[in-house]
Amino acid sequence: MSRGDPATSAAKRIAEMFPAVVDQDRWALEKQQQMFEFPDNGYSELFLKPDKALRRARQVLAQMQHEEAQAAKAKVASPSVAGMTRTA
Questions:
Q1: Distance spanning both ends of the chain, measured CA to CA
Q2: Which of 6, 28, 79, 88 has its CA 20 to 30 A from that of 44?
Q3: What is the CA radius of gyration of the chain?
Q4: Residue-wise over 7-26: b if at least 16 C-beta within 10 A, else e?
Q5: Cα dihedral angle (45, 47, 52, 57), rounded to 10 degrees?
Q6: What 8-state DSSP symbol labels residue 32?
């Protein structure tokens, strides 16, 4: 049963509310999309105390990406001897 009207099922109430929720989401998504058009020059995130674990996770992932990129560059810069055959 729906909390608002005992004669209406919860599923029916959700179906009635769905278009309004989608419109709200659409508005937010459009605003987010517009933000991508602004340059990132000088941008830095402001982290709050509750964000500490999230910030640390981002730092770990960024470090891993950096290390992987460096390893890939090193691999390209120094070709492997394996697979090369010597001809006389």
A1: 86
A2: 28
A3: 26
A4: eeeeeeeeeeeeeeeeeeee
A5: -10
A6: H
* Cα–Cα distance for residue pair 66/25, rounded to 1 Å: 35
Q: Label residue 42 left, alpha or beta by phi (over 0 means left) and psi (-120 to 50 means alpha).
A: left
Q: Classify residue 35 by burial, with Cβ atoms within 10 Å: 0-12, 13-18, 19+.
A: exposed
What per-residue confidence (pLDDT) applies to 67?
96
Place of tokens 């560059």: 73
pLDDT tens digits along 48-77? 888 899 889 999 999 999 999 999 999 888
**pLDDT band per the 50, 70, 90 thresholds, residue 40:** confident
The domains of the chain are located at 1-44, 45-76
The owner of tokens 């933000």 is 35
**What does the block give as tokens for 85?**
């055959």
